[in-house]
Amino acid sequence: LTLNLLLTDGNLALLKDLWPDCRSAKGLFHGSLDVSPGQGAPRARGEFVLEDGWVTAHSYFERLSDLNAVVTLAGGKLLFESLTGRIGRGGVSVSGEVAMRGLVPVGYNVVAQTLGRAGIDIRVPQLSVPAGPFVSRIPFLGKSLQGVSQGQPRFTLRVTGPQGQHRVEGEVVLEDTQFPYPASQPGAFSLGRGGPLADFIDDAWWD
Q1: How far is CA 82 from CA 67, 93, 111, 192, 200, in A?
Q2: 96, 108, 122, 179 - which has most CB atoms within 10 Å?
């Protein structure tokens, strides 16, 4: 069985239908994917290119702009040739490669980092500040406190090693940051069970 997919004139606006936290999105992308029989696993080859995209969200960040990506899949490797964006005054990039067996990741050598001296502007709704008995009686004050948990982190994070034994290591610097801890919402950071992200985090060795 051979599969050939060609994507032209894609619009990032479809993200609003796929991600509930997305308020709006725009940007053009194109790509291709070819899958053919291989020895032990399918052979896969393709690319994805996104140009000048932006996304606004209800949570975690207000606006991700200047989003550009060139990602290729060939020779059993998913290669981040270029993946950059800007959140607030700070930039962020992802580089490196993921070893693949067909379309399944089997190993990592990936770095995510902020660019320049400014951190990226983030908001964490799960760490919203409780309004308290007095302020909760004043609706507009209670709502304003829900967005107080925020910061401008700078970071360098690296993921290396085989899937299931991969190591996450790096450094995070927090500036102008404020949030209460523990989370004011029980189970706020639960990722559920069985999902790819939950499995990736559960299997990681955090250094």
Answers
A1: 10, 8, 12, 31, 23
A2: 108
pTM value is 0.80
Q: For residue 117, give Cα distances in angstroms to 28, 65, 89, 144.
A: 29, 18, 9, 29
Greatest alpha-carbon pair distance for the chain in Å reads 68
- The two tokens of residue 201 are 């985090």
- Percent helix, strand and coil across the chain, each rounded to 5? 15, 55, 35
Q: What is the DSSP letter of 125?
A: G
CA dihedral for 40, 42, 45, 48, sign (positive or negative): negative
Residue with tokens 């406190």: 145
Phi, psi of 73 (to 5 degrees): -130, 115
Residues of the chain scoring pLDDT < 70? 126-148, 180-195
